[in-house]
Amino acid sequence: MQDRCRLITLLEMGGIGKTTLATKLAEQVQDQFEFLIWRSLLNAPTLTELLDDLLKFLSDQQMTDLPETIAAKFSKLMEYLRQHRCLVVLDNMETLLAGRNLHGTVLGDYRGYSELLRRVGEISHKSCFLVTSREEPDEVAMLSGETLPVRSLLLNGLKTGATELLISKGLSGTDTKYQQLIDQYGGNPLAIKIVSTTVQDLFGGNIKRFLEAGISSFNSIRLLLSQQFDRLTETEMVILYWLTINREKVSLLELETDIYPPLPKQQLLEALESLLKRSLIEQSLLGFTQQPVIMESVAERLVEKVCEELAGDAGVRGQGSGEEGVTEYSVQGTGRQSNYPLPITDSPTQNSKFKIQNSDPTPHSPLSTSPSHPRILLAEDNEANIQVMTQYLEAQGYEIFLAKNGAEAIEATRIQKPDLVLMDVQMPEMDGLEATRRIRADEAIADTPIIAVTSFAMESDREEIVAAGVNSYRQSLSG
Question: 3-state DSSP call for residue 332?
């Protein structure tokens, strides 16, 4: 305010307290202004409605003959902003921004707001617009600078007062536990308030017991983050998935190497910059990472994505009559047939000896198809993939066995006699394709249904996978 800024934008993810900060700021500086106007954009008023409202207010309700054109309304508004010292607060600007876009592009029907921001930022006047948003509008990004009359301020979580907030909610613990809980939620005031209720209700206010439970994501917090995730581009979500898979801080080079299929470097950099602006990732000298609560929420989404990859999402609905989104399959090999509603779709090979065919409609749940639960051998060496796939499959009622290389997969198939093998193609010591060939060469286990799970999608890769003798294959998020 002392620098006479014409346009200030407060940026952060939801729940951090942008509206609260703007309210306190307005209360503290209102004596420096002739007019203080607060308008929420949550209900997406048209530009005409907003301009008419501002003009009526600034004219002390004296203007009854309002300008008819947008250009004339802009001209009159700028005249008032030059004549009077006005503070105009526009709250929840993200409502007017297009989702699934790296940049803060205003929605088509509200493009006039872009012109409003541009004029307020570029044209000299003695008023100030204070805008709160989860994302930075393009016009602000182009005009802002540390010493310019247009500023963007990226808010951080609570640095002071968070412990007092926890104490006021009746929570108890050591200073270390207080800080651990605060860091877990990035100092987000809303998230801290939400989790405080849970800690009080379920853990008697004991922070240590809550942290030992290892749960950080709750319905209200998931909803808060889900609103943010739903606005991300596909590239941004892929980056979040890979940061979750890595768990630890990763450098730009490591991230670039990990992601498959590879992203053009410019696309990767733009998406990282956007995620930083959205406060969904953090950066340090050691690389990029996420706050624990964001990482857990992304992991839950990753489970859902793996579910969709295995189940083929809508592509399997209506096939047979098992659980919604789950197709019943008759998985038939040589001399053995199993009938289970598996969470996969058939991408069948042309191997005539090993086929996956839709069964006749016979309604039953995953837990009632056999005297024992369907048994799946998961041959996978990536710990993150093991966690995600095991969590999903066990939730569906399947009994899971693990093998972390091809040799272990062969041995486990001989001993456990699984109903299905999910075989990662890339594993140490012996890869999944060689393990498949050896299983097919062993008469005792040759008829075991095998689905290859691979990150490769080239035609030559598919041909090699089919030639190894798998029943089917699915492309995974990671290799």
Answer: strand
